[in-house]
Amino acid sequence: MSVLGVCLALLSAPAEVVFVPAQRFTLAWTHSIEKTRWEEDYTVDLDAGTPRLRASSARVRGSGAGMEPPPDAVLRDGWYEYQAGQPLAPLRLTRSAFTPDYDWCAAAGCRPLAAWLPSDGGVTLLHACRDPAAR
User: Fold this and answer.
1) Residue 54 pLDDT > 70, yes or no?
2) Among 82, 77, 87, which residue's Cα sits nearest to residue 59?
3) How far apart are CA 60 and CA 75, in angstroms?
């Protein structure tokens, strides 16, 4: 049986895929203008046999500059928290040399996304997948 996880690839080299085995993880980053931390929780599951990426919840410390929390967000301990849950198309993560990298957080702790896939200063694609090596 194949392992579920996330496939990462640079938009400039989409055929060079890095597989990260994870069914729950958090992507976190600091907003480039507001310098405010944003965290989004994701799950990878199967939907009719197809791997699906779902945003389950999110938190942001503050608001402004295009990062307003949705109307149903609850302010708790300085964080606006809200629920998601919808299946997602591949994420397009813009990674710039002028801002800190995304943090990938899982049960073992947080590490920069570059620990799995170095940035080329452009867009990184992230989507749910099965381990490509297990095919």
Assistant:
1) yes
2) 82
3) 9
